[in-house]
Each structure stands twice: as C-alpha cells, then as structure tokens.
Design brief:
Blueprint: H1 2-19, E1 30-37, H2 41-57, E2 61-68, H3 72-83, E3 90-94, H4 98-103, H5 111-116, H6 125-130, E4 132-133, E5 136-137, E6 140-152, H7 153-159, H8 168-178, E7 180-182, E8 185-188, H9 201-208, H10 226-236, H11 239-242, E9 261-265, H12 266-273, E10 282-285, E11 297-306, H13 313-323, H14 326-336, H15 346-350, H16 356-364, E12 366-367, H17 375-390, H18 395-413
Helix pairs in contact: 2-14, 9-10, 17-18
Amino acid sequence: MKKKILALCLLCAVLAALFGCSSGGGNDKIKLSFLRLGNDEAEKTFWLSVIDAYEADHPDVVISYDDAAIGSDMDTKLTNLFSANSGPDIIGHGILSIASRAEAGQYIPLTDYYNSWSGKDDLMDQLVSLGTYKDEVYGLAYMPAPYVFAYRTDLFEQAGISAPPTTWEELEEYARLLTVKENGTITRAGFAFPTSGGNLVEYDVFAYGNGGGFVGDDGAPTLNTPENLEALEFLAGIVNDVSIPYNSNETNPFMTGNAAMTLIDNVKLLSMLSNPDYAGKVAIALPPSNTGKAQMTFSGCRLLFIGKDCKNPDAAFDFISYTLSQSVVLKRAQDLKVPVVLDSLVDQYSGLDEFNAVRAACVENGIGMPIVTWSTSFQTVRNELVQAVENGADPAAALAEAQAKLEQEIVNAGK
C-alpha cells in the first residue's frame, strides 16, 4: 500500500511538472518583465510601489522589474535582450529609440490598443504625437521633460521689468539691460545660452518658436528653412553679447546666480527653486517666440512600449494603461516632481504648486527630437551648426552646409 501511495505521489509530481500545476497556482500566473530607462532610486521606488499596487489588484499577474542607466547601458542591454529573443515585455524608453526600434520590429504598434483604450482622449494630444511614427502609435508618454524659461524676479524688479518676455524683441531688450560686464567681460549673463555641448536643444526652442522644425511630412530633414535660419540669425546677433560661454553639459550659470534668464530642463531647475537663497527670486514661463508666432518649447519624454517578444500584449497594455490612470499619474507628479500627462489633471496639478500651470503649458506646447532613424545624426549636425555660428560663421552658409551634410550622412547610413 505504501508503495502504491508513493507511486501515486510521484505521478502527481510528474503531471504537475508537465502541465504547470502547483498547489499555490503560481505557475499559471501571467508573467511580465519591465525594463525602464534610468537607475535613480526615487523613480525605482515609485515603480516598485506601482507594480505592488497593480499586482495586488491583479493577483494573476507577476511583474519583474529592472532598469538601466541612461545612455549606452540601456541601449546595449535592450539590444542584447532582443537579439536573444528574450526582450522585455514592457519598456520605458525615450523618444530617440522609437524610429530605429520600430523599424527593427522590436517595438510593436499600439495603435489598436490605443484606439480602444478608454483613456485615450485624456492623454495630451502633443504627447500622443511624441509616440507616433509613420502613423502608428508605438509608445505612450508617462514622463515629459520640458524646457522652461526661467528668470530672476528680483533682478527684473531692480531693472523695472514687470513680466517675462513673450517675444524675441522683448528678450533681446531685457537681456541687454540685465547683462553685467566688468572690464569688457560678462560677469552676469542677461540670457544664458550654451555655445557647446552634447545636445543643444536650446536652439530648437527658438526654431519651434518661429514655426520651424527639422523634419518634413515625407520624413526628410528640413534644417535649411527660412524659419530655422531666422532663429539662427537672431541667436547669432545676441548670444555673444549677453551670455557667459558655457557647455550644456556644465552647470548653467543661471543655477549659480550668474544669469538673469535662461532656458533649462524643468527637473534641473528644481534644486534652485528649493534653495532658500533664491526663495521668491525665481520664476518660470513659456519661452518667448518671434512676434506673431506661438510660444513653443522643446520637451523630451519617456514613453512606455511593448517589446516584440511579449507573449501577452493584452496584459502588458493593461499595465501600461494602469500606469496612465489618474491616480498613478498624479502620484508620479507628486513623488517625482514631473508634469502630468492627462488633460483632466491639469487643474488639480496646477493647484499643487505655483509654477505647475506653466509646466503643464510647456508640455502641451512641447516638441521633442525628430522621430526618425537619423535623429542621432541630426543631433550631431545641429550641434556643430550652432557652435559654428556662435564662433562667427555666416548663419545662412552654415545652415546650408549642415543640411547638405545631414542629407549625405542619411544616404551613407542607408536611412
């Protein structure tokens, strides 16, 4: 009898192994993996809390979390996983990843999911466009990073200026008025603008604020346009007269009290806004535009994607939609100090901080990097263009040369 019982137990164990049965029902759970860009502890803590809450409401789902440092670490890790056909189900990544990974088939289109999602009309229109490539929605925005126009209210008051500039004409007037020089050297910038660096999106702000842009409807580069040239000429005529030279990878002079106005990433400005030494002395606004043009800005963004190796995209999108629910979006805004992505939360978000209404406006009026396979080449060529002009090159000639160089690089790369 004991032998029969033992044999029966062994048979049950074999059947459990073959058919995925378990006494706790754990093996029949839906397992999802999530890899996100960035390895800062605050955001990691946020995501782990969101995953815990989701799993509590969805006991049939288990989500494993991982992250990677911004830059090559994330892309190398992601490429290796996809190459081994073991890519993550859900990916949190930036705009620059969209075109190349969509073309490689590593991100799956979410258009059908998006169109049937009950929350689609609440996601800001501008953010939907940031995740769209060739008329397909590939990613849904969760963490916008707009550039804001920051200025010193105390210095404005001393100079008799009552409000931030809304036009380029006002910007130049105020910048020249607020610049301080000693023996011909600028010691306080009227308007801090980088003349070198890794990604000079500050120029993009001026191009966007003049109705310009860098990619046409056909996906071809459009650097050499009248709108972009006018923005470049404006900067060429003012920056060296009002700004302390600095690299965009260095600390912005505004952050050390050596500038009256600047363009800056909203997150980078937070430390200054919380510094008691500058309490009540710093404010933000939409960047000024050319007269008659809409006030626009640059806005980076991280988005959520579903990878090609996902075996249960329905479950993956359900988690993505959960992370874009009102409660989670508001929690992210409060915990991580980032703007909301839902129209329905703008009023509530604005009530949490005196500058949140401006931050939301910068998201709604924000444009990101070109969503094209040649965006990295664009970034390099654009940086060289801005640096050349600030070093004295003729804007028109430099812009034409940059257009030709970018077109050739696209041809050489087969993009």
